[in-house]
Amino acid sequence: MNLTKQSYASARWNHEANQWWVGESITYQWTDSRNRPVSGWMNFDNALLWIKEHDEIKETNQKTV
């Protein structure tokens, strides 16, 4: 599995502060060895949880075969 990173700049108006918020959004996606997506785009913490759950399910399935 490969972890792919995607980032893009974004801006939005903060009505409470009466100013622009400018920042970078970063998301991650798991891909297989052929670079085909196997997960959706998510933040880094969720990407780590996703691969942990994926590996646990894979390990459980291998034990039952």
Molecular structure report:
This protein is an alpha+beta fold and 65 residues long. It has one domain (2-64). The protein is built from one helix and two strands, in the order E-E-H. Strands 1-2 form a two-stranded antiparallel ribbon. The model has no long low-confidence stretch (mean pLDDT 94).
Describe how the helices and strands are arranged:
Layout: E1 2-14, E2 19-31, H1 44-64
Antiparallel strand pairs: 1-2
Structure summary, number of beta strands? 2
Q: How would you characterize the largest beta sheet?
A: 2 strands, antiparallel
Shape: elongated
Helix percent band? 25-40%
**Domains counted in the coordinates: how many?**
1
Major sheet: arrangement of strands: 1-2
Strand content: 35-45%
Low-confidence stretches: none
Residue-averaged pLDDT, rounded? 94
**Number of helical runs?**
1
In angstroms, what is the radius of gyration? Answer: 17 Å
Class by alpha and beta content? alpha+beta
Distance between the termini: 22 Å
Order of helix and strand elements from N to C terminus = EEH
